[in-house]
Specification:
The complex is a heterodimer of chains A (275) and B (419). Chain A starts with a helix and ends with a helix. Chain A is 40% helix and 5% strand. The relative contact order of chain A is 0.09. Chain A has helices at residues 3-11, 14-20, 25-29, 42-49, 60-79, 91-97, 115-125, 127-130, 166-176, 187-200, 231-234, 258-261, 267-272; strands at residues 87-88, 112-114, 209-211, 226-228, 254-257. With 419 residues, chain B is mostly beta strands. Chain B has a domain at 295-416: Immunoglobulin-like. Chain B has helices at 11-23, 43-46, 133-138, 166-170, 183-190, 215-220, 384-391, and strands at 70-71, 82-85, 103-105, 118-123, 129-132, 142-149, 173-182, 198-203, 210-214, 223-228, 231-232, 242-244, 257-263, 278-279, 285-287, 295-300, 311-320, 326-332, 340-341, 343-345, 354-362, 367-375, 404-407, 413-418. In chain B, the strands form 6 sheets. In chain B, strands 5-4-13-8-9 form a 5-stranded mixed sheet. Chains A and B meet through strand 1, helix 6, helix 9, strand 4 and strand 5 of A and strand 1, strand 4, strand 5, helix 5 and strand 13 of B.
Chain lengths: 275, 419
């Protein structure tokens, strides 16, 4: 048996490690031609060790080859083997948590809701934060209006001005609203309140009833307002192999100061450690 | 790694600098109690201290009580849907202590009983599965250090210098070591169907926050982490399990992860359409801008960490890039006119923070401090004006422009912008 095989055996013997109280690994691992220990399968480990196994006798080789073929099959199978962790999710379990809705309508629940029914839901559960007309109360998100403002100095992003897909509104309300009482709306209430939001944004009229069936007719004003990340082309100049190091500007002037608007909270207290 | 030659001050220069410092009103901090100073024996030497295990989970010294996360209350309508900031100016090295990692919640902290934690994997898989936390912990695991930056970090600064302190301007970043299961290993257990192209990750918080992630990224380097810096995730960081999406905006690192669904298209959830899309001056918006561009900030001196003495001074900062390793950080003392390479000290890991230092002799004159990160892809952190030229000022997200700190003659530091 080669020196390498011996140290491999020692290394793999927990009893020995326990009894001796120390791992004899350093002397084993220092030997250059020995295989590096890793979390590989025994079969693949053997494949790597084999060429270095100069101590193997002639008749052992065909046996080893046969073993390696078997080992290879086992290893190949092991690549997509299951670890056997977890258990099957039941359809009932999935149905309870599977609440996402896509732009193509996948995931839309059964049920329906009218603008009229939605007004009641909205006034009872949403208007306190979002305002009676979706105009926002305090700093809570404005949900209506803002159309045509996206290129203005102060763009207002709402369901009507910014959302590209009606599915996003249904999906979000279904996940997260009402704030503090999420996932409490019935499917009918969900459809109704979204119908009302669409009405507040002049996207549907007051007779509209939202459902899986009518979902497709809703046209969002900002549907074409998005494009995928293009930084690697539009900002290609930021990849610069020779950034300027000296005399990069003629002069340097201060053009703005935070202190002028002074909106930093608690700055002095933060510095002195005084609460 | 780039080195600079540290200049050791001569004793004469140090003394003259100290004298000029005094003249400028820069004085060393006054000691609290002269009785504790030599030649006296201080009070803590004369008594026995607390024994072991009187502090079973150790906290920082009471004298460090000011080193805490802080929020900006006018930013958001409620603290449940808000952000608190890492006190970068009080930290060094690259690892953020768990209790100081910035928080961003959309509906408060979900307090999950680990016994009742379940992770569901379904959609375009061969076998929909449910895992307990104990089962997640039985998977093969890895340890990786990554930065996590909120896409909105520095978002308040798009229109100009606004907040005085790198905690507020840059504190939506942290860097910790995660322990977890490679997502590729977990998904293999369920068997991904060939037509799956996207992954939906959903949280168990009251916002049940969801994001769509391209499957290629999920299989590349994403993790389901349950530990940070060795201990279990903090509740505010997604206990007991969160998604780790190296180099990508923090919002996709879904906390309190409860569900992974495979699909053939993205979901266009609210957080990837109405939010976390970058509105350009044209009125059109970029979507799926996942990668965090290279960025850096000088953490000391900075408005919350002013200079208190003239003479030898170490300028210290953090840099990171979502595209790989930070290759170099340059520092300027004159508002970007002249640059020199800073010294990166410590580990330079893929998609992790690096710590950089630039040593200088501060004579008490004004300085306009800047830093710029350069990553291994050759990306150079742009100036704010270069960024605004392309993106306008309504983007909110992905502001990685170069920060300028004005160090004034009295050592106070202000957030400014320069031409």
């Amino acid at each position: 048996m080669s020196r390498c095989r011996k140290t491999a055996l020692i290394r793999n013997s927990p009893a020995l490690i326990l009894r001796s109280g120390r791992r004899p690994r350093l002397e084993g691992w220092r030997q250059a031609p020995c295989p590096r220990p890793s979390f590989e399968t025994p079969a693949s480990a053997l494949l790597r060790r084999a060429p270095q196994d100069e101590g193997g006798s002639f008749w052992l080789r065909p046996l080893l080859a046969l073993f390696l073929i078997v080992a290879f099959v086992v290893t190949a199978h092991a690549a997509d083997r299951k670890l056997g962790l977890g258990r099957d999710a039941t359809q009932t379990e999935i149905a309870g948590w599977d609440i996402d809705i896509r732009p193509d309508g996948q995931g839309l629940p059964p049920g329906s809701g009218s603008v009229k029914a939605g007004e009641e839901v909205y006034m009872g559960k949403c208007a306190a934060c979002h305002g009676e007309f979706g105009e926002s109360a305090g700093r809570w998100p404005q949900v209506a209006g803002g159309q045509g403002s996206l290129s203005a100095d102060d763009p207002v992003k709402t369901v009507g001005s910014y959302f590209a897909h009606v599915s996003t509104v249904i999906d979000y309300v279904r996940h997260a609203m009402p704030f503090g009482d999420s996932q409490s709306l019935s499917n009918d209430e969900l459809y109704a309140v979204v119908a009302y939001l669409l009405f507040l944004n002049d996207i549907v009229d007051d007779t509209f009833v939202l459902s899986k069936e009518t979902f497709g007719v809703v046209k969002m004003p900002n549907a074409g307002g998005f494009h995928d990340d293009d930084r690697e082309t539009t900002e290609k100049a930021f990849w610069n192999p020779q950034p300027c190091m000296a005399n990069c500007k003629a002069d340097v002037k201060i053009t703005g100061r935070a202190r002028v608007i002074d909106v930093t909270p608690d700055d002095k207290a933060a510095r002195k450690g005084v609460e | 790694m780039n080195e600079e030659t540290p200049q050791r001050p001569s004793r004469r220069r140090f003394l003259s600098a100290a004298a000029s410092g005094a003249a400028l009103g820069v004085t060393p901090a006054l000691a609290g109690n002269p009785k504790n100073l030599p030649p006296n024996v201080p009070e803590w030497t004369r008594v026995l201290g607390d024994g072991v295990a009187t502090r079973p989970y150790g906290n920082p010294s009471k004298h460090e009580a000011h080193v805490i996360r802080r929020d900006v209350q006018w930013l958001t309508a409620s603290r449940e849907s808000s952000v608190s900031f890492t006190p970068l100016h009080e930290l060094d090295g690259i690892i953020t202590p768990n209790g100081l990692c910035f928080e961003r919640h959309h509906a408060g902290i979900a307090e999950i009983d680990p016994e009742d934690y379940r992770l569901m994997v379904h959609g375009l898989v061969e076998k929909p599965l449910i895992f307990t936390l104990a089962e997640l912990k039985r998977f093969p695991r890895v340890n990786r250090v990554y930065f996590l930056e909120c896409a909105a970090n520095s978002g308040m600064e798009w229109r100009g210098a606004q907040l005085n302190g790198c905690q507020y301007t840059h504190g939506m970043v942290h860097c910790v070591q995660y322990t977890g299961v490679p997502l590729s290993v977990l998904l293999a257990e369920a068997g991904v169907k060939p037509n799956a192209k996207w992954l939906l990750a959903e949280g168990a918080d009251s916002a049940a926050m969801t994001r769509s992630i391209p499957l290629a990224k999920a299989l590349d380097d994403c993790l389901i982490a349950y530990r940070m810096n060795g201990e279990m995730l903090r509740p505010e960081q997604g206990y007991p399990a969160r998604l780790v999406v190296p180099g990508w905006e923090g919002n996709v690192w879904v906390k309190w992860l409860r569900r992974l669904k495979l699909g053939d298209e993205p979901w266009f959830a609210r957080e990837e359409t109405s939010k976390y899309t970058d509105l350009m001056a044209s009125g059109k918006a970029r979507q799926f801008t996942f990668v965090m561009d290279a960025k850096s900030v000088i953490t000391s001196p900075s408005p919350q960490a002013p200079l208190r003495a003239t003479g030898f001074t170490v300028i210290s900062g953090l840099a990171w890039s979502g595209r790989g390793k930070v290759a170099r950080v340059d520092v300027s003392l004159d508002g970007g006119k002249n640059w020199r390479a800073a010294k990166i000290d410590g580990l330079q890991l893929d998609k992790a923070c690096v710590r950089f230092y630039a040593e200088t002799e501060w004579s008490g004159g004004e300085m306009l401090l800047q830093s710029r990160a350069i990553d291994e892809t050759g990306y150079v952190q742009p100036s704010k004006s270069e960024l605004r030229k392309i993106r306008g000022v309504n983007s909110i997200y992905h502001n990685n422009g170069i920060q300028t700190w004005l160090v004034k003659a009295d050592g106070e530091v202000e957030n400014v912008e320069v031409s």
